[in-house]
Amino acid sequence: MAASTGLRLARTVPAVRYKASRHASRLAIPTSAAVDTLEGLHSTTSLAPSVKERHDHLIISSRQHGLQNIALPYAWLRDACTAPTSVHPSTQQKVFRTSDVPAAIRPATVLLRQDDEHWKLEIVWDCALQPDQVEADRSVFDLAELASHVTPAGYAARNSLQELAPILWKRSSLSDRNLRIPYARLESPPIMLAALRQLITYGIVFFTDVPVEQKADELCELAILSSMLGNIRRTWYGDKVWDVKSVENSKNIAYTNLDLGLHMDLVHYDDPPRYQLLHFLHAAKSLRGGASYFADAYYAAEVLRKTEPEIFATLATEQVAFEYKNGGHWRSSHKPTIELAPPSEFGEEAIIAAVNYSPPFQGRQPWSMFTSGGSTQQEAMERFRRLHHALGRFSSLVESPELQYSLQLAPGECVAFDNRRVLHARTAFSWDAASEPAGEAARWMKGCYVEGDSIRDHYRTLSERLVQDTTML
């Protein structure tokens, strides 16, 4: 049997084969008795998988892989093939279109076999997608890998969605052991992985003992640190990093010594940066105030979802206008305060994708937003009243001392946080200018943004590499 398929069986385990019928039905559907007989030849009958052919789909069952009577269309299976004729070996990119798969494609042969403890499903199709191909296409699926694309739990595990789900926090619960990580220890892959996990799940991590000697943008340590984590996001503040210090006639409230309440950066962008880093370089000896504090906006949103669902719904549907028009730039964008991810099969509740909250950068709210959809004047006024009330409830939650994590950053400390989730703020500050060197900033930080996709990419690839290294020991 092995010779007829052209594939070597690693162990003397009987393979289960189903051949195409020469009669009108094209496919021969094996009886359950025949399948039971074949499975019974294997010593681990209860764990042996089984397949049943139907007119346009295959039914797969495998207890050890979490598959129970899973029906998979033949066209879906052919589209999921990763053989060299389907996915280019070096680029790992698909070489055909989903629409190229014939809707009526059928298997000529279906084979289940065990190879080095791995169950494989092999299908020889009744046609080839490439016009110049002589032999029919052949697909081989590892059942464990197939399960990771079939069941919600398997797909979530494959993409680390469960492990990387947000961990909500308030001041008393933000005490994870990886909250503060020495910068020098990031050279260790397991420590880097812990830092990335902390940043993704809690949305905030602090790095300590980050050198402050180099302050030029191209030489500063923040550029090095951020590049270690992911890809720097360019904005109009600079190619890589930018300074945060008090200056006269500032174009941004962050560059003053005024109180800067809880907010998010660049919400007036269509696609605001996901992560932000702030590295504290210098503080005047006479500096008073300037404490930093943070709040988990996801925590506040989930509180509203559970306790005041009508307010949650208002914040998730009504748009808020954000705008920046200054310093030669003009950006505007409209977003709901609570941005939900598209529906998925991974949970009944809609997942929060981001929060958009930045009072300093709110624009004038267009009244047309409330009169849209044929709303009457009375309905428009009611919509505004609901939004006004909902924003007040959200604000009161995030401004609650129980939610805020506050600290006085010192030179050499760097905070990285999720700019689409964690609100950040700074209290007003003052200093004795006469007692400080002339022209020196009283409070000086460098900042930058990092792409969210690059952080998750780094986490997944590093996690996979460490798992492989452990397996090989």
Automatic annotation (TrEMBL):
InterPro entries in UniProt: AlphaKG_dependent_hydroxylases (IPR050411), GBBH-like_N_sf (IPR038492), TauD-like_sf (IPR042098), TauD/TfdA-like (IPR003819)
This protein's name: TauD/TfdA-like domain-containing protein
A Gene Ontology molecular function term of the record: metal ion binding
One Pfam assignment: TauD
All residue ranges annotated as the TauD/TfdA-like domain in the record: 187-449
UniProt-listed PANTHER family: GAMMA-BUTYROBETAINE HYDROXYLASE-RELATED, OXIDOREDUCTASE AIM17-RELATED
Originating organism: Mixia osmundae (strain CBS 9802 / IAM 14324 / JCM 22182 / KY 12970)
Obligatory cofactor(s): Fe(2+)
Keyword Glycoprotein appears in the UniProt entry: no
Protein family (similarity comment): Belongs to the gamma-BBH/TMLD family.
